[in-house]
């Protein structure tokens, strides 16, 4: 979700690693089919943006076919595809309006536009949000229940301790509570992956997704985090939930920005350095995440990657 890929050494391998990382975020954060969330935006780009190469149109057709034919047509089936279509449509509109614009500006704008569009639907139909919320929670609970049952069948009735099952259900409840933030992160990552694939097939990799060390966004977005913290501390009910989701979404972006600063200042991570970081994250995840968030916030005010030069924050 950074800037243009560039053409320096290692760009090809780095681009594939970025694509894998973006897909991993979509898989982890999205409760539905990650392929749908990527395929529909890519299909819209391939059909409506030049150069419209044959391979792009074939892949677009396959993606639309997957979206139309895949899965039983339950309530979530329509929600999943409706959201992907709205998200992809917003990104396409912004790409047509600002064809030379940076990806992250258009991606964040598309996510915001999709949320505003869904908000309008919920305003017209007030009971629709409760249905969506219930469907998401039910899907999460079903996934955990299916996993537990599979473990019990394979390893015996006592294979899953009661304490572990209780903890898993608490995690599911938390995921349901912060679902909008996770949806925003998954959607932004899916757009990044769709754009990466589009620029590759269009033979314009310089317009694609850049290296982590270049990741930054408009510094004014810090106010979203500040307002989220205020709502979290001072409000209850829907405003409290909105505050929690704003903090989670912006916190993830600032953590990624902090990781970008570290990558820039250290000249990138070697294989062993990356392995050490993964181990440290597994063992000390809260400390690593909070440290990255604070570094990212510091970059907002002090431009840690370019001290003494006017910040090149993305507009």
Overview of this structure, please?
By secondary structure, the protein is mostly helical. It has 2 domains: about 1-210, no CATH class; about 210-315, no CATH class. About 75% of the residues lie in helices and about 0% in strands. The protein has helices at about 10-30, 35-50, 55-70, 75-95, 105-125, 130-155, 160-175, 180-200, 220-235, 240-265, 270-285, 285-300. Helix 8 crosses helix 10. Residues about 5-10 and about 310-315 have low confidence and may be disordered.
A few lines on this structure:
This protein is mostly helical. It contains 12 helices and no strands.
Number of domains: 2
**Largest sheet: number of strands, sense, barrel closure:** none
- Structural class of the helices, strands and pairings? mainly alpha
Mean pLDDT: 86
Distance between the termini: 14 Å
Helix percentage range: over 70%
Task: Give the H and E element order.
Answer: HHHHHHHHHHHH
- Overall strand count: 0
Tell me, what's the shape? globular
Low-confidence stretches are 3-11, 308-315
Q: How much strand?
A: under 5%
Number of helices: 12
Rg, alpha carbons: 20 Å
Please tag this protein with its features:
globular; single chain; mainly alpha; 315 residues; disordered C terminus
SSE layout and pairings?
Layout lengths: L10 H19 L4 H15 L5 H16 L5 H23 L5 H22 L3 H28 L6 H16 L1 H23 L20 H13 L3 H29 L4 H13 L1 H18 L13
